[in-house]
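During data preparation, we tokenized the protein backbone, and the record follows.
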Amino acid sequence: MATSVWKGYLTFGLISIPIRLFSAARDEHISLNQLHKLCNTRIKQPQYCPTCQRMVERSEIVKGYEYEKDHYVLVEEEEVKKIAPPSAQTMEIFEFVNLADVDPLYYETSYLAVPEEPGRKPYQLLVKTMEETKRAAIAKVAMHQREYTVIIRPRGNGLTLHTMYYNDEIRQVAEYGQTDGVQVKPEEIKLAKQLVESLVADFEPQKYHDEYQERLKALLDAKLKGQEVTTAPQPQLAPVIDMMEALKKSLAAREAVPKKPPARALEAVGGEADAEAAEKKARRRASR
């Protein structure tokens, strides 16, 4: 069973909903360890005290803040708990905003908010209300010794919570969004739209994969089996000189690829074929 990262109450107005937060996603990748080249032994990071000149146990370690060079103020775990703000236990919604106005750029880490048994009905009430009003909630929660402003949005009959980047954390790049007087012709837009439409598909996240990680795994498997590693072919990209010509060639290439009919269309075609076959069979029986 998944371990919750926060437990407390989600509140709005006089309604309190007991919830737990669970991590909504995590990074999956192949890790490569650092080894000693001479003996292939994994390098370890020892917990060593240079003053006492010996290794120290985890139980001997305390936390401290360096206020000046080599001078620390010690902080006990219980002291940290005493100064925790109310948001360590209660996540109060202080405003609702239009969900469409929230730029996903502000989303940082995602969590799934799951109600405790006594809070299931008010939780669903909040979910349905936010779905119908197309609103997102803004609240504060303290965890991991930090207080976060969070965005809560309805998703899949539940509430998904995102810690939020603050405005001064959003990076600005001077060149971003600069058109520099570039003019796009209407006929170029028309062809580009046709190319976009030819690439339209349903969003199915399960069909996307990290090809780099797959190739890395294949590399490791091949080396374990003593096989030779082959170089992956790289596409040769030519610079675009004539935009219209490039769009026309791209569109022609897409049109040459046979399209798969939608599943419903296939069902409909299959249904029509079955119906037609049944009708022919009935006619043959009637003629006998």
